[in-house]
Amino acid sequence: MIKSTKKSVVGSSASSGRIKAIDIVNKGLKRRYRKEKRFRLYGMLSILASVAFLAFLLTSIVFNGYSAFLQTYIKLDVPLEAGMIDKQEPGRSDFQGIIKSAIRSYYPEVTERQDKRELYALFSSGAAFQLRDTVLSNPPEEGTTLSLWVLADDDVDMLMKGHMKRDVPEGSRRLNDKQLRWIERLEADKRVEKRFNTTFFSAGDSREPELAGIWGAVKGSIYTMLVTLALSFPIGICAAVYLEEFAPKNLATDFIEVNINNLAAVPSIVFGLLGLAVFLNFFGMPRSTPLVGGIVLMLMTLPTIIIASRAALKAVPPSIREAALGVGSSKLQVVASHVLPLALPGMLTGTIIGMAQALGETAPLLMIGMVAFIVDIPGGFTDPAAVMPVQIYLWADSPERAFVERTSAAIMVLLAFLISMNAVAVVMRKRFERRW
Amino acid sequence: MQEVLNKKNVEKRILAPRESRDTIGRINVSNPRMICRDVNVYYGDKQAIRNVSIDIGCNEVLAMIGPSGCGKSTFLRCLNRMNDTIDNCRVTGEILFDDKDIYDSSIDVVPLRAQIGMVFQKPNPFPKTIYENVAWAPRIHGIIESKSDADEIVETSLQKAGLWGEVKDRLDQPGNGLSGGQQQRLCIARAIAVSPEVILMDEPCSALDPIATAKIEDLIEELRTQYTIAIVTHSMQQASRVSQRTAFFHLGDLIEVGATEAIFTKPSHQLTEDYITGRYG
């Protein structure tokens, strides 16, 4: 049958009149291989393209941000004369004044009021706090001179890192010629140095870039994620198990299923509005806190976790369920002993996706006040806090040049946080993934 | 020409009206363990089994044969209410076990299934160790409390299933690592670990090679002394080898039931004869 129809296609090329099927196969072989080759090429190209984009993204972030891990410090000799440090309460001494007088004594030629102000501007306002910490932790003798590496102002930092050019006209840079000369003198005396930026990893947000750190946001994110995970993982899995294993299949469960799928597609800011209306206004929970942020993100991640968990439960072969039922186990025993262990890796995958999504979410948190400028490092679930993506958003919005590199550095920290969070989940999943 | 006519006759008989499809043969036995009367099973609107009445005797092997889709597996799964897991499945009629209808609302399926165990078509050991496969069910029923109880029950069950000698040194290995025949015997060991009274087997050898099949058939012969066994099989040779009584199902009807020997040597119903002589099926 096949031979006769094919014969008419192949036509006169057959001498004997009977064409073997293998000849037809051979004829089409080249075309088939070409098609396969083409398809593989497309696949490789798309992978190459995505790798290229990713590499471009990462290099631009690293290139912009790596300099934020270093910070310019200036060595300042602080002579402590009698009466400068309050004997009764050393913490209440005028440290700002002491720093200023130390600066003046290094530049005795500066006398003008305006010049003095420009001179002080080279040093960070955090220098006074550094001095205070030093004095309080190790009270010095009167009359001694403390040699202190204090933070440079962000403009000086930018100059030292080459983000601010020295050879452009005075009007187009933030440090004037006079200030440049003062800095050159410091450099000549080897009093300027770039050191590892510990402030960035230990401080909260600040108006001064050199005093701003990501640690407050990291802790805020940790607390928020803990709340999200603690709520969404058990709730999501219980909901999925109930819907998949126990719930009767009727109109009500169909309705719930449709709505869960819809919720997964709802823009995240809507969840923020919901959180504002329900948790803040109705229940009166404290605003700007990881507690509320975590609950709002929990609402957002729940559909993802439920959908992934249900898919994982569906993938468990029914023969396992039947086997367990066949020996007379109750439904819960079937689920707890056999179905859940097999579905857990898939459920964890869903949780990873949901948590990663929650970690990078900004919009819903804007609504519940987590976008506020928060200097303090949160110490608990009910302290006002920022989270990393919000911090990135805030810094990206700041005009100072030094915040540009800090924005990129914060993105790096966020990525590192995300990767380590996922790594933990992958390790856990691998441990449960003993399918045999 | 004769051949063609014969075929036509067979087709006519297969599609014969329902009324003429009453069960032929003796459905009751002297010492029944389970009594089924007028069992109907529906999947939604579709009726899968029609008015099946049959007894399953104590310590006998009842074989159920019939062409694909004849409802023999469906009927088997009614006997321990495994059909409960299928959403739109409905069962009417009565199935008596210990003089109680197992579909009565007062019956709890958990102890019921502990008494009526099941072995499935495809070997389905739990993805756990061989030891756990056997010990799990007795543990959840509270039959075993100590480790030594468990060891004992695992050993006796595996011995009864004829698997002990092959696996006694690797009880902590995964059950899925065994060969197909060993897995099926492990499933049998798992079923008998809870000391059921009836064992239902749904084509237990269809995925196995002849050697593994022979082992299982020997095992069924041994188990018969302690358990009542109902087995669904596609292989008529198997039915004739292992069973004392045979029931022939066709398109949801129980066509004929009787002593295995009688069924295979002088079947009464034309459909039965056509089937066992291989004219269709």
UniProtKB/TrEMBL annotation, chain A:
It is a multi-pass membrane protein. It is found in: Cell membrane. GO terms for molecular function: phosphate transmembrane transporter activity. One of its GO terms (cellular component) is plasma membrane. Residues 218-425 form the ABC transmembrane type-1 domain. InterPro entries: DUF3333, MetI-like, MetI-like_sf, Phosphate_PstA. Gene3D superfamilies: MetI-like (1.10.3720.10). The keyword Transport applies. Keywords: Cell membrane, Membrane, Transmembrane, Transmembrane helix, Transport. One of its GO terms (biological process) is phosphate ion transmembrane transport. The chain crosses the membrane at residues 41-63, 222-243, 263-285, 291-313, 334-359, 409-428. PANTHER family: PHOSPHATE TRANSPORT SYSTEM PERMEASE PROTEIN PSTA (PTHR43470:SF5), PHOSPHATE TRANSPORT SYSTEM PERMEASE PROTEIN PSTA-RELATED (PTHR43470). Belongs to the binding-protein-dependent transport system permease family. CysTW subfamily. This is Phosphate transport system permease protein PstA. The lineage of its organism: Bacteria, Pseudomonadati, Chlorobiota, Chlorobiia, Chlorobiales.
TrEMBL record, chain B:
InterPro entries: AAA+_ATPase, ABC_transporter-like_ATP-bd, ABC_transporter-like_CS, P-loop_NTPase, PstB-like. It comes from the Bacteria. GO terms for biological process: phosphate ion transmembrane transport. This is Phosphate ABC transporter, ATPase subunit. Keywords: ATP-binding, Nucleotide-binding, Phosphate transport, Transport. PROSITE patterns: ABC_TRANSPORTER_1 (PS00211), ABC_TRANSPORTER_2 (PS50893). The keyword ATP-binding applies. Residues 34-276 form the ABC transporter domain. GO terms for cellular component: membrane.
